[in-house]
Amino acid sequence: MDSRTDIEALRQVLPMTNGVRTSGWTGRQPKPAWALLPADYRDFMAVYGGGRIHDLIVLPPQPTGNGWQASITGHTAGFRELGAMEGGVPGIELGADRVLPWGSGCNANELGWLMSGANPDQRPVIVWRRHGNPQWALRYGRVPAAPHDR
C-alpha cells in the first residue's frame, strides 16, 4: 500500500474523535527538513497533527507555538543521548547522530527512525524500551508493533 491508502485506512479505525489531540501543526515545513521525513509520517501529520493517541505521543516536526511543547526538534538531543549512553541498536554500526525521534510512550519507551539510506520511506523504526533487554530494538517496516510487543 502507498501512504495515501494507508492513511485512509487509518482514518477508518482512528477517527479524529478517538482520543487524538492535535497540535495545531499545519504541515508547512522547510523543504529540506520535510524531505527527511517518511511519507506516511507526513500524511499522518497532515490529517492528525502531533499529539497524544491514548498512551502514545506522536511528535510534530517542530514546536507549534500553541502550548504543545513536544517536537522532533525538541526531543532529538535526548534521544541521541540515549543512543550514545546505551550503545544503540545491537549489531548496527551507525552512531547516535543517525537516529531521529518521532514518538514517546507513557511507559518511557521512545520511538524513532534509524537514518540509514537516502530514502526516508525505507528507514527502519527503532525503539528504546525502558524495561527491555536489550533496550534498543530495530523494527523494519513503516508501522511498528507496540513497544511492549517483543
Describe the fold and architecture:
A six-stranded antiparallel sheet has the order 1-2-3-4-5-6, covered by helices on one side. Helix 1 (3-13) crosses helix 3. The chain has one domain. It has four helices and six strands. The two termini are 25 Å apart. Strand 1 (51-53) and strand 2 form a beta hairpin. The chain has helices at residues 3-13, 31-35, 39-47, 72-86, and strands at residues 51-53, 56-58, 99-105, 110-114, 125-128, 136-139. It is 27% helix and 17% strand.
Radius of gyration: 15 Å
**Which percent range fits the helix content?**
25-40%
Task: Quote the distance from N terminus to C terminus.
Answer: 25 Å
Tell me the overall shape.
globular
